[in-house]
Design a protein that fits this description.
81% of the residues lie in helices and 0% in strands. By secondary structure, it is mainly alpha-helical. It is built from 19 helices and no strands. It has two domains: 190 residues, MFS general substrate transporter like domains (Growth Hormone, Chain: A); 206 residues, Growth Hormone, Chain: A, CATH 1.20.1250.20.
Length: 437
């Protein structure tokens, strides 16, 4: 292991924070902000849930093309190229919002954003390992996660609040969101220009030598084959797909519920209020829950806390049943309810992250962990696709009751997975607790 130097650590401060801010912002816009935007543009809940859930697909299948990023050109090249594409995609969404067929055209640019963002994730994480020595990689894990969370706050919170302000300022939802997305595009282009100078050029960041493209395909095939030959793979896949079954549906409908009119069963919050609730209060509670989950797991291991974590990620969903039946007018009550749900989610998600690390361990752990994250995204995509149809069929009150019923498989698969009692103890759990979901 190479010893860290003061100059190498100081140099990392120039690019690690901005790189992970650049990683988090497009993800927040594609997966979270798009739901709020389309609701304000009068798209139906069924269409919002179906089409925005499809946007998870690049994260589902990114293990398939990650070997290309690993072998063709440099990680630095991929980072800068995808940042240009993300900036162009954001500008494309902004320009299509005022058009008559905005939903179709903006979704096309959202797909560009999604594929570019997923590729950026691959290259950024690879570059992180190449650009830092072992000590600095461990030291900066909290920094990178902090700036990823700041990107989530900026996207889900500040950008949504800006859109709300501009909606009122121009008395036009379309104008407000078009300007907001153009601002996001401008920010991203500035980040790209900064990274053209700030990103280092490590000697190890060079194209990997492979015998042939066929050899590369065989390596990828072998990684997938060995993954599906692992012991307890069926139970593990059930865990990856079902542990968040309730949450996957809730995350699509909850912001729509807050925005919908009271006569439609919602709480009639403004765009700016939703930005504050989810982007600031929600992200803060989520981060606090994740940190606590890591600290607890580090003391007694994943197996000890697994039961408590599956309770934490699922039972706080009952706050939405309360909100849908009581429909409080107090914004403080709404903030408190969302904070409880997000804190529980942060605490419970630690188990998911740790189990992915546990199951992926072995000779191909990097590839296997990437496959695990693909199934994680699939577990969010499939339930999310039908959540809008379910909600519009039975209403918000019964939908949130259904979400509680949908948490039952999560309890079952958490009970079935085998875990070493010693796994998760130590600093690794604390570092994973701040990792991005």
């Amino acid at each position: 292991m190479s010893e860290p130097t003061r100059s190498s650590t100081r140099g990392a401060w120039r690019w690690v924070p901005t790189l992970y801010f650049a990683e988090g912002l497009p993800y927040a816009i594609v997966i979270l902000v798009s739901v709020i935007m389309y609701k304000r543009l009068d798209v139906s809940n069924t269409e919002i849930a179906l089409y925005t859930s499809w946007l998870y697909l690049p994260w589902v299948i990114k293990p398939i093309w990650s070997p290309i990023v690993d072998t063709v050109s440099t990680k630095r090249f991929w980072i800068l190229t995808t940042q240009i594409l993300i900036g162009a995609g954001l500008a494309g969404v902004a320009l299509t919002i005022p058009t008559s067929d905005f939903f179709r055209y903006s979704l096309a640019f959202m797909w560009l954003l999604a594929f570019s963002s997923a590729t950026h994730d691959i290259s950024a994480d690879g570059f992180y390992m190449l650009g830092l020595n072992d000590h600095d990689q461990a030291w900066f894990v909290g920094i990178r996660s902090t700036f990823y969370r700041l990107a989530m706050i900026s996207g889900q919170g500040l950008l949504v609040m800006l859109a709300g302000y501009l909606e009122s300022r121009f008395d036009s939802v379309q104008t407000g969101w078009s300007i907001t997305l153009m601002v996001a595009a401008g920010i991203y282009i500035l980040v790209y220009l900064y990274h053209t100078r700030a990103l280092p050029r490590p000697d190890s960041d060079d194209p990997r030598t492979v015998e042939s493209f066929g050899h590369l395909l065989r390596e990828t095939r072998d990684a997938f084959t060995s993954f599906f030959r692992k012991t307890h793979v069926v139970v593990a896949l059930a865990f990856f797909l079902l542990y968040r079954l309730g949450e996957a549906q809730l995350v699509k409908m909850a912001p729509l519920f807050l925005l919908d009119a009271r006569e439609a069963g919602g709480l009639a919050l403004s765009t700016g209020q939703v930005g504050k609730v989810y982007g600031i209060v929600g992200v803060a509670a989520l981060t606090a829950g994740g940190i606590l989950g890591g600290l607890m797991a580090a003391k007694k291991g994943l197996k000890y806390w697994l039961g408590w974590m599956v309770v934490a990620i699922n039972l706080p969903n009952v706050v939405y049943v309360f909100l849908s039946y009581v429909t409080p007018e107090s914004i403080l009550v709404v903030n408190a309810a969302v904070a409880v749900e997000q804190f529980g989610y942060g605490f419970g998600f630690t188990a998911y992250m740790l189990y992915m690390i546990y199951f992926a361990d072995g000779p191909c752990k990097t590839s296997h962990f990437a496959i695990c994250t693909g199934f994680m995204a699939l577990g969010m995509m499939l339930p999310g696709m039908i959540s809008g149809w379910i909600q519009e069929s039975i209403g918000y009150q019964l939908f949130f009751v259904w979400v509680l019923v949908a948490t039952i498989p999560g309890f079952i698969v958490a009970y079935l997975i085998p875990v070493d009692p010693e796994f998760g103890k130590g600093e690794e759990a604390v570092a994973l607790s701040t990792s991005e979901p």
